[in-house]
Amino acid sequence: MKLITTLAVTTALAAVLAAAPAYAQTRIALVVKSLGNGFFEAAARGAEEAAEEIGDVEIIYTGPTEPTAEAQIEVVNSLIAQQVDAIAISANDPDALVPALQRAMQRGITVISWDSGVAAEGREMHLNPSGNDLIGNTIIKLAADHLPEGGDVAILSATATATNQNIWIEEAEKVLPNYPGINLVATVYGDDQSDKSYREAQGLISSYPELKAIIAPTTVGIVAAAQAVTDAGKIGEINVTGLALPSEMAAHIKSGASHSFAIWNPIDLGYSATHIAYALATDAATAEPGSVIPIGRVGEVTIGEDGQAAMAEPFTYDASNIDEYSSIF
Amino acid sequence: MTDTTNTPHRHIPDRLDNPVKSAVFSWETLLVLVGVAIFTANAFASPYFLNEWSLSDLTFNFTEKAVIALAMALLIISGEIDLSVAAIIALASTLMGMAVQWGVPTPGLVAIGIGVGLACGAFNGFLVTGLKLPSIVVTIGTMSLFRGLSYAILGDQAYGGYPADFSWLGQGYVWWVISFELVFFIAAAIVFWFVLHRTNFGRRIFAIGNNALAAQFSGVRVARIKFVLFCLTGLMSGIAAVMLTARLGSTRPSIAQGWELEVITMVVLGGVSILGGAGSILGVVLAALIMGLVTFGLGLLNVPGIVMSIFIGGLLISVIALPILYRMWKERRQ
């Protein structure tokens, strides 16, 4: 009996020692809106790449199952308890995460947001993948490029409360007058769920017989819309475009349901966020307006007056380059 | 001399079971064992778990849901259910946010949150007891109705700017690491325990859940008690809305999405029969603690949320299946 007790205790101790992390490292948590999303998996790959480059960094890639603020707060609380050095978050809600992230900063954790931002008081700086105005213009231009005669277009977005989608749609509406003949007839919401997005796309196809393009600035929505167009036998009549992952759209580019779409490189985004978080956590840089932070192979970012920085412009993918990129992300 | 040994006589016990024996083999004991096992596993698995602030943060993962679960337990014991609790939070939070824009101070905001919850609960209660509609249908409907109203008012906007003393209700500490939310939950649990297990009202809830018709013929005012329970569930949802809104510091119509299922999971894991008629407040409190321990413990290990929900589902099924399997095994042996 005594032997068994001794064995049990030593095994447990060994387990604890094995589980104890190396304290010398800088631990950077990459918190995403929800796990199981190809975009964020790609960002995590970029973060790992940056960590390897810097050397002394451990990446904790985490996020909730449901894309809600409450679930993300639970994740942030557990990261605070783990005393990580930095949190780089793509937020499900710009306001609701502020109290939790402020608590993290009070306990000495560097907090930055990327992709989908947090209100200024809840982070030190925000990294935009691109300029919102550039994205808003790009999604309309993608549709207009293939509509020389003009025509009806509709937008299929994620949730009605998704911060970045709403800003892009707003920017897109601003540049509409620059594209004469392009007529935005509806904006619908698929909640970033495949089945709901598919039904919303079907609804658009049947409600607007003159529809020439569906613009979906979300990777779930665009795939569902392309499938709906394919199933309705409207390939060639309705062009599906927007923002998406190349791997998910490759088949629809080849079938012709989509002529082209755009996205910034999520690998670069995770990579840049990691570089910035490391620089701020190790005091190599400060998060002040005007300060310039080098981000490895991507170049450098300059923090603007509003505490935000833009990484790069979105990149257009079509039949000529889809094979090359669909194997990457 | 009388010989008593030959007279046939029967021993009638004061209680059906030996109280010690029934306590040892109860559902609550099983939950305590599961809870202790998970706590110990957490302490060994993560060096950050046994820290007063970690344990304090842990309580925020379940207190608001557990506050609703207390009232939901009573409702389910009575044979009804309320699926609209999360939607009540959304509506109460939205109207509190609206009031902030008009400059209403903290006591007013709390009154609005609780008042809206109570009104929503009364509406559910009226539809179920007044119009004799099944509660599952009614509350699926009001779930869409209440949250729909929030979306209609807010759209993709958010209400913010809650006063600092209001935030204390969701973020503040009464003493050291003991949060206001935790203190409120413990106080509410004691009140609910007393009501369910030590009052006539509580006995009547069990009677209704076991056989509503028999209870009716025994002079229990079934409809009135059910109506009160719906109001109570709405009231507790309103209080949860106050605490959650104060913790988040902002309101969006998607607030507390999916919480109704987590609340019901707590109640069922706590040993309340989903068919009504059986259950205890102690069990619900223990189940809330276990769910908090599991989610926080797995979070500390950075286990993906997908694995976490699989774990919770597995826990629920196994804790419910274990006693049934045990009983089947025992019957087969006899």
Say what oligomer this is.
heterodimer
CATH topology of chain B: ABC transporter involved in vitamin B12 uptake, BtuC
Strand order of the largest sheet of chain B: 1-2
Beta strands of chain B, count? 2
The CATH architecture term of the largest domain in chain A is: 3-Layer(aba) Sandwich
Which two chains share the most extensive interface? A-B, 39 and 43 residues
What is the H/E order of chain B? HHHHHHHHEEHHHHHHH
Total helical elements of chain A: 11
- Rounded mean pLDDT score of chain A: 87
Q: Largest sheet of chain B at a glance?
A: 2 strands, antiparallel
What would CATH call the homologous superfamily of the largest domain in chain A? Response regulator
- Percent helix of chain A, as a range, is 40-55%
Taking all residues together, what is the mean pLDDT of chain B?
90
Q: State the CATH class of the largest domain in chain A.
A: Alpha Beta
List the uncertain runs of chain B.
none
Please state the CA-atom Rg of chain B, rounded to the nearest Å: 22 Å
Shape of chain B: globular
Query: What class would the helix/strand composition of chain B place it in?
Result: mainly alpha
Element order of chain A: H for helix, E for strand: HEHEHEHEEHEHEHEHEHEHEEEEH
Write up what this structure looks like.
The complex is a heterodimer of chains A (329) and B (334). By secondary structure, chain A is an alpha/beta fold. Chain A has two domains: 24-129 and 266-312, 3-Layer(aba) Sandwich (Rossmann fold), CATH 3.40.50; 132-263, 3-Layer(aba) Sandwich (Rossmann fold), CATH 3.40.50. Chain A is 43% helix and 20% strand. Chain A has eleven helices and 14 strands. Chain A has helices spanning 2-19, 38-54, 69-81, 98-106, 132-145, 163-175, 194-207, 219-231, 246-255, 266-281, 322-326, and strands at residues 26-31, 57-62, 86-89, 110-114, 125-128, 151-157, 182-189, 211-216, 239-242, 260-263, 292-294, 300-302, 308-310, 315-318. In chain A, strands 2-1-3-4-5-13 form a six-stranded parallel sheet, with helices on both faces. A four-stranded parallel sheet of chain A has the order 7-6-8-9, with helices on both faces. In chain A, α3 (69-81) runs parallel beside α4 (98-106) and α5 packs across α6 (163-175). In chain A, 53% of the residues are buried. Chain B is mainly α. Chain B has one domain (47-302): ABC transporter involved in vitamin B12 uptake, BtuC (Orthogonal Bundle), CATH 1.10.3470. Helices cover 72% and strands 1% of the residues of chain B. Chain B is built from 15 helices and two strands. Chain B has helices at 19-24, 27-45, 52-60, 63-77, 85-101, 106-130, 135-154, 164-171, 180-198, 200-210, 212-217, 222-248, 259-269, 281-300, 305-333, and strands spanning 173-175, 178-179. A two-stranded antiparallel ribbon of chain B has the order 1-2. In chain B, α6 packs antiparallel against α12. Chain B is globular and about 85 Å long. At the A-B interface, α1 and α3 of A face α3, α12, α14 and α15 of B. Chain B: Part of the ABC transporter complex LsrABCD involved in autoinducer 2 (AI-2) import. Probably responsible for the translocation of the substrate across the membrane. Chain B: It is found in: Cell membrane. Chain B: The chain crosses the membrane at residues 24-45, 66-96, 108-128, 135-153, 173-196, 227-246, 258-275, 282-300, 306-326. Chain B: It comes from Devosia geojensis. Chain B: InterPro entries: ABC_transp_permease. Chain A: It holds the Pfam family Peripla_BP_4.
